[in-house]
Design brief:
By secondary structure, this protein is mainly α. The protein has 15 helices and 4 strands. The protein has a domain at about 25-235. The radius of gyration is 19 Å and the shape is globular.
Length: about 325
Amino acid sequence: MTRFWIGAGAVIAIGLLLAVTDIIANSFWFFAAYVVLQYVVLATAWNIMGGYMGYVNFGSAGFFAIGAYTAIVLYNLVKAPLLVMIPLSGIVCGLMGLGMGYLTLRLRGVYFAIGTLALAVVLETLMVNWDYVGGATGAYVIRPRTLEPFGDYVKFLTFVMLVLAVIAVAAARWIERAKFGRGLHAIRDDEIAAECAGIPTLRLKLIATTLSGFLMGIAGAPFPLYVGFVEPASAFNLAYAVNAIAMPMIGGTTMWAGPVIGALLLGTAQQIANVTISSELNLLIVGLVLVLFVTLAPEGIVGLVRKYFGRGR
């Protein structure tokens, strides 16, 4: 029954987006919605490792950027369409996640976090020195102005990101309820005890890093068409890594709804701040909200709701 309601909700959301494309004339709302949905995918992807498995990944911006640069390579080579860029970018980032897992998953705690951060720095250095994708000066990607039946191409990108968000959330929900997810939870609670119980911890961790990398890659694939110009400083922006961590922690890392709630609330607040105050305050807003939640509600919004209803019962 729960699957039915999730599927029905996804169909309704997509239907509503198709309907409002003809009603809302101002493209800004679609630009803002795209960013919020992009963060839903990133936060959900991060939560597979950071929430379910307990391994904090500071390299989210690296996976996101490699997804974007893979799309640029495909565009430069064969002018590949977006629907080809997305799965191929996901595959490249999934393989990168697998490689990262082999290199870093024997580390734990802060050492693993530093290793993933170092990976993002190395990748950014490589992109800065790779002239084929623009190097330090960046690369232009010319998108179509319109695409029927959406009209403005940005509306189409928003629709695509909504579909990707639905896929990411569905994957997270499946992991949460599957045997695979229970294995990740065991690793998070006590990895040594999980190994002693016969759980193939290394295999599960490698699958988690691959899946998380794949989802981050598909989140980054439409980015060049969205902005039209990509440079290392924008693709590897610290905001992606910070938001990917903060949003699940604010919403709650214990279930699939937490990253979605955190991304919708914090992403919307950031877009409002962009047009009313200043875009430079985004990271300050994230930091202040994260400190408040870590101090007052360490289990996030989902934890607060569970505690409230638990007391009620």
